[in-house]
Amino acid sequence: xxxLSDLAFHVLLALAEGPSHGYAxxxxxxxxxxxxLDPTTGTLYQVLQRLAADGLIAxxxxxxxxxxxxxxxxxxxxxxxxxxxxxxxxDALVRVARKRKLYPQGA
Amino acid sequence: xxxxxxxxxxxxxxxxxxxxxxxxxMFDMRLxxxxxxxxxxxxxxxxxxxxxxxxxxxxxxxxxxxLTQRQRFHDHRSGVPMLETLMKDTQFAARLMxxxxxxxxxxxxxxxxxxxxxxxxxxVVNTVLxxxxxxxxxxxxxxxxxxxxxxxxxxxAAAPDFYRYRAQNRSFEYLDAFYxxxxxxxxxxxxxxxxxxxVSSGFFVNLGVQPAVGRGFTPDDEQWGAHQVxxxxxxxxxxxxxxxxxxxxxxxxxxxxPHTIVGVLSPxxxxxxxxxxxxxxxxxxxxxxxNSHNNYFLRMIGRLKSxxxxxxxxxxLNAISDAIIKEESIxxxxxxxxxxxxxxxxxxxxxxxxVLLGAVGFVLLICCANLANLLLARGVARQRxxxxxxxxxxxxxxxxxxxxxxxxxxxxxxxxLALGIAVLSARGVNLISRQxxxxxxxxxxxxNVLLFSFGIATITGVLMGLVPAFQGTRLTLADxxxxxxxxxxxxxxxxxxxxxMVVAEVALSLVLLAGAGLMIKSMHQMLTLDAGFxxxxxxxxxxxxxxxKYMGLGPNGRPSPLLMDKAQMFFDQATARTRAxxxxxxxxxxxxxxLIGEVWGKNVTLLDxxxxxxxxxxxxxxxxxxxxxxFRAMGVRILNGRAFTDRDANDAPKVAIINRAMAKRDxxxxxxxGKLITVNPxxxxxxxxxxxxxxxxxxxxxxxxxxxxxxxGVADDARYGGITTPAAPVVYVxxxxxxxxxxxxxxxxxxxxxxxxxxxxxxxxxxELDRDQPxxxxxxxxxxxxxSVARPRLQTTVFSVFALMAILLAAIGIYGVMSxxxxxxxxxxxxRLALGSSRHDVLMLVFRNGFVLAAxxxxxxxxxxxxxxxxxxxxxxxxxxxxxxxxxxxxxLLLATAAFATWIPARRAARLDPxxxxxxx
Lengths: 107, 921
Description:
The structure holds 2 protein chains of 2 kinds. The model of chain A has no long low-confidence stretch (mean pLDDT 88). The relative contact order of chain A is 0.17. Chain A starts with 5 loop residues before the first helix and ends in an 8-residue tail after the last helix. In chain A, strands 1-3-2 form a 3-stranded antiparallel beta sheet. Chain A is mainly alpha-helical. Chain A is 53% helix and 9% strand. In chain A, helix 1 crosses helix 2 (22-32). Chain B is 52% helix and 15% strand. Chain B contains 28 helices and 24 strands. In chain B, helix 6 packs across helix 9 (310-328) and helix 15 packs antiparallel against helix 24 (790-824). The model of chain B is unreliable at 69-79 and 483-489 (pLDDT under 50). Chains A and B meet through helix 2 and helix 3 of A and helix 2 and helix 3 of B.
């Protein structure tokens, strides 16, 4: 499987705590990346579409009160595993960086 | 369905099918959030979202293509980034340009002229209409004026009303009044007359302008007695005071009164269109008639409080104005208008400037059409190259990209050359008078203009290259690799495209010619209309006498409008002595000459009928006081009765002359000669309090009754208000009988020879009468006439230049297309000739082809011109925008041009040697 792009990983992170919809995911990504990632509507939805096609997320039931057009997405089990794998990959890299004195311990 | 969703459906249909409504919902939420963030962020949001859409669409298509696994060699799939491809294309394009220098030169020249003209026009639009005025936060500044009557004609405010507006308004951070007059600077260097701006104390703070040296005004400067201070312009400081560093505190005499200089303005200061040299604070002595409802002469500038709109300010002031109307029974029918200052300043030229921008845009489109035709022709010549490249697997898209890069590159180089033209032209524009084009001196190339230039150069490149690029790469492989097929792909499609271009060009040039024709006819109307006077060989100059010196002092110790003997003697002597000069035929003087505007409005009381119920029922007139032989000097005919003579003096019975407009309005069915009128309202109609105050302060003698004037003549209508302003009713009165405090007259002298030859002798006469009295405003009526039509003349000239460029380009376009067509069809023509067609037949064949194109263009152009005609309505004078004479003339002109342009290739076709053509491939 191709490695997760930065944006895709952020989306999975945003969905980790429960189902969410496009607008909220976008806001979450922007906040968590400190403004570095600010995807437009089209870009974000394309990522959602691809993640759904790859089976990492799935459409979930909307709570009753919201706009009827709104689609909610949730992590699948496969998605959780993929996010974990990506985190592990990043973690391993960070450890190497630490060992090679490129990145301070406990920062 | 919203815009975003519609675009999504087009650009990324698969995403739309799967998630359309959800995407739309997310976009709506983001849009709602951005709407509260301000206009700039909202704009950026839209741009980002739309670009994001395009990206999404592109990558969707890339994914789809990958999924369908088509086996073709696309070099865009090689993973080479776009920038590298672009650079390679540019290199190739540059090499191509070098190899055909003639072609490149023609293209670059056409581009440079077309883009250059557009850049200059845009820089004018940018400076005059878009750039904010040079004041702090200029958007908050407004022009505040009373307006009256059905047309809401802008008028002037009275001083007591201004003070009340200033004190009681709640919408303005600052509200200040201003008016201008000319004053004599004497003492020290020679006497010179300068424009003076008189302002209330907050003026400089209001505008946000700091004097470069010293200070502005404070509220104390408005107190009578402390008011004799002045701020001078940088120019005056340099010219008259030698840029003396110790200028603050120096004194200068304005109209004989000493003023202390307290500040110097920066060189960049400009206010409205005037060339202000001196600014003094507005101040009135107690009881001064100027500070009353007898005189309306102020305009106001208001800086809106933040959060307030002009409409709110207008309502606020109208409430105060209504209170004044109610309490003092005056100013009936007046409302207060508050308009953005920039609009007030450039309003009159907004339409013409935008129309000219449109016109020059048309010229650029015609350039594009010509260039597209050129490129189409060259595309045919490159067919073999294109065929080979397609055969080895280049994608059509890449080739189109290559062609477009070439045309955009050409266009950008042309754009750089255009900038050179534009910079030079901008200098030319700077020389245009400010009265004709507000802010003309400020026009220059700035980043906005550069961006515009770059933008239209790119768009031009794409426009002119698009059709040739697609056409040039549309091929079936087999045909064109064949040996000996030279341009066989000049098929119907290509020919039709070129024909369409020509039709479009002809249509566009007809539209421009129509505009130019209408404006030329309009100029003609303006210059030949009967303005009511004869201006040739008439000299005018202004004599403005200081009131303190030439008016007697009344009981209150101030100049009285009833004691005008000294002034009268001056003017009588000046006219008499000028009359005695050799070369002077008739000499007179008047307070306001034709074309300079309506200077003195009054209300007339017609004594042959019952009085109206109040002041607003008195008919308005323009008032003119006359010395000497004014009517014959200015060439204003007396239609009925007589002119004034020397016997109409102070103690003689008072007489008046009215003009035809007044006779028509007020005496339609009777003979005005012999009827009585007064030019000041009868006391019964004035508010009692005002009359009592005036008598008490000495402005009116007790038992005053306005003098009665007998009408002794009717004069022809002269256009006092301006060349395009129809004559208003006028009452003329001899100066000796009705001067009423006017000390400013225009001397008018009709001469046998060159009017300017009298200037020197007249200056001497004036100097003999009063050494300190300067002569101002020297001009012949002819030059005044020229100035009054200067703006329409400039517009007409510029428009005509564009129209000329258009017709030339169209002619070149027709010639080019027909010429090319003939050379392409040489073989066919050869066959016809060989089979027995006469040369005449061939000539007519070609000629007819060209003519049909031109005729189609003309018909299309006429239709477009007629529908666009409305736009020009405010720019033409006494001409219908669908004038058949104009349209007829330009149609003939275009037909003739097209005929000429087609004739030459047609003759060449007729001269072809059939054997030679059949022999070639």
